[in-house]
């Protein structure tokens, strides 16, 4: 009896155990199917798709609120190789205008790492409107293929390509290092697009959508509960004057060279022209972009992709004499009334460097007439000062003083590829001539901006801004505000002082620069109604015809613009560069041009092929 009772109790225990197990399983199944979405989301590749929502790239505006860069809608064709079944390959190739071999190559790439047969990847990027329209009608026939939308850049005016830069596909190396990017994403490659990539790109979002067995989108999963919204990139407010930029590019057509203009009181870049240039819209799109880039890259005659304003290094020529004049005054070696002999060249070196005929001149007059002999003497006096026990100490003093004006240093601008130029060192000349086997007269042509001295146009524009400001500058920059709060990097508000800071020395130099317009080498380019200060230069070029250089700022009191113009292989600065600078200053300060004949000559001049439309009547002043 007791045994039977014991067995009955055991039966209830065993039954209860199995009932408990059943309850646990049923509860777990209920939780998984009706409450927990974890396993549902893990299986989303079967019924759901996770799509990247690309952020709108930030717009870029000029200093007056005019649009420089905007976005337009574009479409990419995506493929999931595992889902490509019974696809009408020939029909798809016909729509995409590709061959069957192209199709097979792309399918092979789509299954290789970092892609995979089950992973969606780009098959054709940036479809043209024509192809996209044709594809939409037939997409149901191409199982495994889908379309995603994103935006690409568009430029309302076809200008400022080198300044704005362009956007392209991120490199494999960059995508591997930065988790934000994956292959096929776009990134700023050059210019502002590169420098401000992090602000412009925004933040990508994710959208989970439901698809049917035919891979057609049926809607958003759980009304977007698990979606994350994309955050648009920040707008950039640039310092560029779009009208001045466009005008400068028109004047530089048919020429090689660069124009850079800066607002001295802020360091804001007003325009940056590199010629020959190109329409930035050429580097937007799929196949068209690739074809256009190849064409531009292979143009070795004109090098339209080469940013001459920021990376081309030229001898500054006679424009460099302004720096020597300031250093020598500061050191007490010359004053306003100092006169040096000139008989067609530097007498101590047998008339070399050569000089053009001109009347005897004091310091302001030496600037106006651009006397080579004068600045050969000035350079020797600076380097050979008795206060320095060794010659190399004097040379290093000159070099350090020059570098305080920017040459030979990186300015730290917000544009990429900021080249330092070259102010040759003692070590360099020791290698060339031997230690203690060279003196000031050995390298005296440095005093007139020649020899191994090299500057980029961007640096020379900053030198003019320094002269206009009488001894200081703000780091040149092209973005004056990021985001709607218009944040500006504090480093662009910091004043930098040069070796020469006394206003009285700059006043004398300004007198000479004004005289350059009034009765010197740039009289033909004098600006009606505006008191401007300028300096011509002819940069000797061992590889061909000399380069024409001119720099100026205006007005003399409270300067609003400082700029430089280099025109390659154009000869005399007063003939080509001075008129371009003169016209641009007048246009910027007054909003109009009162010298249409000069404007027409500059716009029609074609110097690239050696053709000079001004013919033999061109002015013959060299400096």
Strands, helices and their partners?
Layout: H1 2-35, H2 38-42, H3 44-47, E1 48-53, E2 60-61, E3 67-79, H4 89-96, H5 100-111, E4 121-124, H6 129-138, E5 145-154, H7 161-164, E6 167-169, H8 172-177, E7 186-188, H9 191-195, H10 197-201, E8 205-211, E9 217-220, E10 236-238, H11 242-251, E11 257-263, E12 268-275, H12 287-297, H13 308-311, H14 321-330, H15 363-369, H16 372-383, H17 391-403, H18 426-433, H19 457-469, E13 472-474, E14 479-482, E15 495-497, H20 503-519, E16 533-539, E17 547-554, E18 561-567, H21 577-590, H22 596-604
Parallel strand pairs: 2-10
Antiparallel strand pairs: 1-8, 2-3, 3-4, 3-5, 6-7, 8-9, 10-14, 11-12, 11-18, 13-15, 16-17, 17-18
Helix pairs in contact: 11-21, 14-16, 15-20
What does the model show?
The protein has 623 residues and is α+β, with helices and mostly antiparallel strands. It has 2 domains: 48-80 and 121-238, Penicillin-binding protein 2a (Domain 2); 242-550 and 562-610, DD-peptidase/beta-lactamase superfamily (Beta-lactamase). It contains 22 helices and 18 strands. The chain has helices at residues 2-35, 38-42, 44-47, 89-96, 100-111, 129-138, 161-164, 172-177, 191-195, 197-201, 242-251, 287-297, 308-311, 321-330, 363-369, 372-383, 391-403, 426-433, 457-469, 503-519, 577-590, 596-604; strands spanning 48-53, 60-61, 67-79, 121-124, 145-154, 167-169, 186-188, 205-211, 217-220, 236-238, 257-263, 268-275, 472-474, 479-482, 495-497, 533-539, 547-554, 561-567. The longest helix is centred in the N-terminal third of the chain and has 34 residues, at 2-35. The relative contact order is 0.10. Mean pLDDT is 88; it is low at 610-623.
